[in-house]
């Protein structure tokens, strides 16, 4: 039953695909009514703020780099269908459940990131989307990032696996920090 629940979550959230390593943005045809409040204008800008949040041990900034509850429930969740398909609909119970799972797990990952990397000078030397880039009806997902991080210690760079990024009309935010 537990694996069925996770399979259902993965399917409904639709945030995993196989793929490549690139920073290019697919052309966007997202309805202009959708936007991410305080989103960054590029993935590089988002990753720079992410790096800064970790270096500064800024829990609030780290949280602000993720989509809000409203953005997730109003754009990401219903828009996680193939292009050209109608938006998905969910009742309040499903919405609360899926947001609760995603947000709760992200909060734990945030704490782990701050514990592991907080206060260290960091440099992102490479970005890979382990599960590719996928264009959905209402947004583009850059799935399951793997960042190569150099902390300046002279040790070999380390790989940091984190969640996915959403792009909506030229604005970028993390969907979550949850990696699978």
How would you describe the overall organization of this protein?
The chain is α+β, with helices and mostly antiparallel strands. The protein has one domain (2-174). Helix content is 36%, strand content 17%. The chain has five helices and seven strands. The chain has helices spanning 2-13, 43-55, 59-64, 69-76, 92-117, and strands spanning 123-129, 133-135, 140-142, 145-150, 158-161, 165-168, 171-174. Strand 6 (165-168) and strand 7 form a beta hairpin. The longest helix is centred in the middle third of the chain and has 26 residues, at 92-117. 28% of the residues are buried. The model is unreliable at 1-28 (pLDDT under 50).
Tags for this model:
alpha+beta; 7 strands; 17% strand; disordered N terminus
Taking all Cα atoms into account, the compactness measure Rg is 16 Å
Tell me the strand percentage band: 15-25%
Structural class: alpha+beta
In DSSP terms (H or I, runs of 4 or more residues), the helix count works out at 5
- Summarize the helix and strand pattern as letters: HHHHHEEEEEEE
Ends apart, CA distance between termini: 18 Å
Question: What is the approximate shape?
Answer: globular
What's the mean pLDDT score? Answer: 86
Give the low-confidence spans.
1-28
Domain module tally: 1
Largest sheet: 4 strands, antiparallel
Helix content: 25-40%
Oligomer: single chain
Give me the side-by-side strand order of the main sheet: 2-3-6-7
- The tally of beta strands, per DSSP, is 7
